[in-house]
Amino acid sequence: MHIHLIFLCGAVVASAAFFALLYIAQRYPSWAFPALMLFLIGTQPLGYLIWGEPLASTYYWGWLAGLTPCLAYRFWLKVKKRNS
């Protein structure tokens, strides 16, 4: 059960941080790159800092699982906007 919570934590962190990144990029375009770096450097290694190995790998897979639908949604919006 503990592993599933860590996986879910990684997915929630990645999703929330990704949408925060999009918000910052839309409101403050000059801060988009620093926000991206903060997103990558600040959220991905959290599992290693909090749990250490081997649980950090579970967090990482959750982080990737949370990020995948966010990226797919963003690309879908971009294609939809381009076709309009």
Description of the molecule:
Helices cover 86% and strands 0% of the residues. The chain is mainly α. Helix 1 packs antiparallel against helix 2 (32-43) and helix 1 packs parallel to helix 4. The longest helix is centred in the last third of the chain and has 29 residues, at 55-83. The mean pLDDT is 88.
* Span between termini: 45 Å
Radius of gyration: 14 Å
Structural class: mainly alpha
Mean pLDDT: 88
List segments where confidence is low: pLDDT < 50 over at least 5 consecutive residues: none
Shape: flat
Helical run tally:
4
DSSP strand tally: 0
- What percent strand? under 5%
Largest sheet, if any? none
- Order of SSEs, N→C? HHHH
Share in helix: over 70%
Task: Quickly describe the structure.
The chain has 84 residues and is mainly α. It is 86% helix and 0% strand.
